[in-house]
Specification:
Elements lengths: L2 H40 L6 E2 L2 E2 H32 L2 H6 L5 H29 L11 H22 L6 H14 L12 H8 L2 H13 L7 H14 L1 H12 L1
Antiparallel strand pairs: 1-2
Amino acid sequence: MKVRRAFRVWQRHLMVYTKLYKSSFALNFVEPILYLAALGLGLGAFVKEINGLPYVNFIAPGIIASSSMFAAVYECTYSTFVRMTFQKTFDAILATPITIDDLIAGELMWGSTKSLVYGTIIIIVISLFGLVASPLVILVIPVLFISGLIFSEISLIFVAKVPGIDSFNYFYTLLMTPMFLFSGIFFPIDTLPPWVTKIAFFTPLYHLVNICRAFALGKFSVVAGDIVWLVAVAVLFSVYPFRLMRRRIIK
């Protein structure tokens, strides 16, 4: 695999995105803002404070994490599957000097980039609304790329195994939705049974939420373990998208 050729795949996706960004922007941006408004302001009228924070301030950093997660996941599940199966974009790309590994690396890079972009947009929005207490929140941005890589890896692993596009319903219902609800975005998970907390620890979104919230509050040192966890998992998962997608494409 050559980085330059993988970058060309990334560049191709960027060019397509610049033509279709309006619909994608609405999907990945408007939804988290609605969550922030409906729950932060609506439910926040009844839930005054959590851990000493107004409820809307508590959930705002978590919305950064969830928005970046879904940006990568949407891109590397449905979009990747459509490019591979229906549009035959993969076939066209592989007719060039680009190899399968270059192609998969480009997909991962693009999913991570979208994660970073949408997470950064949410950072800007919540900062403009005064929901961030520290400029350290800017340190979340490189972390979004790392976590976006993990979510992209998980998504491509699933793409490599699903028999059809309808199977993504299982992925979102059984994996993404529980992760979204039980990662500490909307309430502290230490209020739940201990076994739920233990399961949550092994999900990347839980660690990303911890990092976003800590940096938004200016607490850098308390999340060193979460950052190490994300880096380690990104490295651990890195081989599987290439191995499984290679089998799927060749088959």
